[in-house]
Amino acid sequence: MYVITGEENHLGERRGYRIMPGTGVGSPAHLTIQESPILQRAAEWAKSDLFITRQKDTEPRSAVPTNSLTPGEPLVDFGRFLADNESIAGQDLVVWFNLGNHHVPNTGDIPNTLMTTSASSVMFVPHNYRVRDRSRALTRRIRKMMKSEMFKLEVR
After folding, report:
1. How confident is the model at residue 3 (pLDDT cuts 50, 70, 90)?
2. Which of 3, 31, 94, 112 is 20 to 30 Å from 106 by CA-CA measure?
3. CB atoms within 10 A of CB 151
């Protein structure tokens, strides 16, 4: 959850955004082997689904393809982005979100994998922004009313 400091709604609740996996078919990919002697420090970004750091022009990407050539001393070492332990309050931020999926290959993938069976996404969902449930503003809704022993549907 990312909270906007100093901003509260009319009930005194702090506003913010939930950063969460989207509605894709699969779940986010996870690094299954921690402290790999082969991978070493080449993919530090894969240790968690989400990182938030201060924005720096010297940190434009979390890795480069050549990281696998020197995994002990990668050209871009994402672990160093986190090592400085800087405060992020009141700063421009970068969200590093690990987006991927686990897909079990099958013969239906030939000649290509259909996106309906291989999808993933991320959602930034407003938290404590709305005054009430947004569905209340729908122009057409149904209200069930009980009259005697029968239900009456009223469409507005």
Report:
1. low
2. 31
3. 9
DSSP for 38-99, please give it.
TTTTTTGGGGSSEEEEE--TT---S--GGGGGSTTS-SS-HHHHHHT----TTS-EEEEE--
Q: Distance between CA atoms of 38 and 43, rounded to whole angstroms?
A: 11
Residue 155: closest CA among 137, 144, 135: 144
Distance CA 155, CA 45 (A): 52
Burial of 44: CB neighbours in 10 Å, binned 0-12, 13-18, 19+: buried
Q: What is the pLDDT of residues 62-114, one digit of tens each?
A: 999 999 999 999 999 999 999 888 898 888 999 998 887 767 778 878 888 77
Task: Determine the residue type at 75.
Answer: L
Alpha-carbon distance of 150 to 52, in angstroms, equals 56
Phi and psi angles of residue 41, each rounded to the nearest 5 degrees, phi first: -105, 15
Domain ranges of the chain: 1-28+99-156, 29-96
pTM of the entire predicted model: 0.68
